Amino acid sequence: MSVFTRRTLLATLALGTALAALPAAAQQKSIKVGVMSGAEEEVAQVVKKVAAGKGLNVQLVPFSDYALVNEALERKDLDANAFQHKPYLDAQIAARGYRIVPVGLTFVQPIGLYSTKVKSVADLPKGAKIGIPNDPSNGGRALNLLAAQDVIKIKEGKGLSPSLLDIAENPKGVKFSELDAAQLPRALPDLDAAVINTDHALNAGLDIRKDTIAVEKREGNPYANFVAARQGEESRPEIKTFVESYQSPEVAKFLEERFKGAIIPAW
């Protein structure tokens, strides 16, 4: 063996020894992911543990306002986010021109109609005050839930995101209060009912099995959440590993045991 070859081999061995001596976190690839605080963050913590076993260090960045998460991804403050469904992203892209794309399904949170004043939809009084989210996609989702319960009727062809202007019939004369989604649980005592996103309901201590008078369908639900990334970066290995970690048996088991039907796998 020549002196050059021997020196090269020794240098390679020394480098391998040095890398092996590094802390595990230093050898891992990293990714920064935006999530909603509360229940969704709990799920993401399980994903983080699964990802660590695959050599990926996940830094979770919790938010309390839906509107800020895509903005942070667009500004490259995040590598990905995991909090939204397709109608919401479509509305954000239409309004703000984001170049953001879905890269892998996570879970479905069936939205519910909650009430502390009545026990059934039939008990809603004439002129009932009902709160709905004030963003277009979740507001439309709320109206579709109410239409499915025959509280209102929506004009034909309005799809997943109807607005209050698209109500064709309102036999009970319902009065709608459009509020920020996070404010609806606090407003519930002042309303006859409110359509509340599951993450905000869980954060407020509401139980989708006990406190709702109507719940969106679970099977074939078009509002499945997903991991999203900037267009052109959806094939990054770190993002693929994060999606694989989300779509794992460990996460499915956690959803079943922790949320018992309030949050269910969508993959």
Radius of gyration: 23 Å
- Beta fraction: 15-25%
CATH architecture of the largest domain: 3-Layer(aba) Sandwich
| CA-CA gap between termini | 55 Å
**C-alpha geometry:** globular
Mean pLDDT: 91
Count of the domains: 2
* Poorly predicted tracts of residues: 8-13, 22-26
The SSE order reads HHEHEHEHEEEEHEEEHEHEEHHE
* The CATH homology group name of the largest domain: Periplasmic binding protein-like II
Counting helices, strands and paired strands, the structural category is alpha/beta
Number of strand elements? 14
- How is the CATH topology of the largest domain named? D-Maltodextrin-Binding Protein, domain 2
Q: Biggest β-sheet, characterized?
A: 5 strands, mixed
Strand order of the largest sheet: 2-1-3-13-4
Number of DSSP helical runs? 10
CATH class of the largest domain: Alpha Beta
Helix content: 25-40%
3D structure, described in words:
This protein is α/β, with parallel strands linked by helices and 267 residues long. It has two domains: 3-109 and 222-265, Periplasmic binding protein-like II (D-Maltodextrin-Binding Protein, domain 2); 112-215, D-Maltodextrin-Binding Protein, domain 2, CATH 3.40.190. It is built from ten helices and 14 strands. The protein has helices at residues 3-21, 24-27, 39-52, 66-74, 86-96, 136-148, 184-187, 198-203, 237-246, 249-259, and strands at residues 29-36, 56-63, 80-85, 100-105, 107-108, 112-114, 129-133, 153-154, 167-169, 175-179, 193-196, 212-215, 225-230, 264-265. Strands 2-1-3-13-4 form a five-stranded mixed β-sheet, with helices on both faces. It has a five-stranded mixed β-sheet with strand order 10-7-11-6-12. Its main location: membrane. Residues 1-26 form the signal peptide. Keywords: Lipoprotein, Membrane, Palmitate, Signal.
